[in-house]
Design brief:
Elements lengths: L3 H10 L1 H11 L10 E4 L11 E8 L2 E6 L2 E6 L3 H4 E3 L2
Antiparallel strand pairs: 1-2, 1-5, 2-3, 3-4
Helix pairs in contact: 1-2
Amino acid sequence: MLSDTLTVYVKKNYPEIIKEYNRYTNRNELPAVGDIVITLTSGFGGYAGLYRRVKEFRDNNIIISGDGRDYIVNVEEWYKKIEVIK
């Protein structure tokens, strides 16, 4: 990663950057069916910050559900749209 001093500084002052970096580096670890996720963007039945559950995988998409509806998240960009809470 970065030098230790810079990493400590960023973790202390900008923890959201480290969190986003970790989501990016772990993007190949897809959420599992049944996992609880939180939306990072609007468009999943409301604003960002809504809890949803991974329902299934279909084609190249992750299907998440909440409030009686299903929403589609592309596998290639899932880490930009949702975060796994488990």
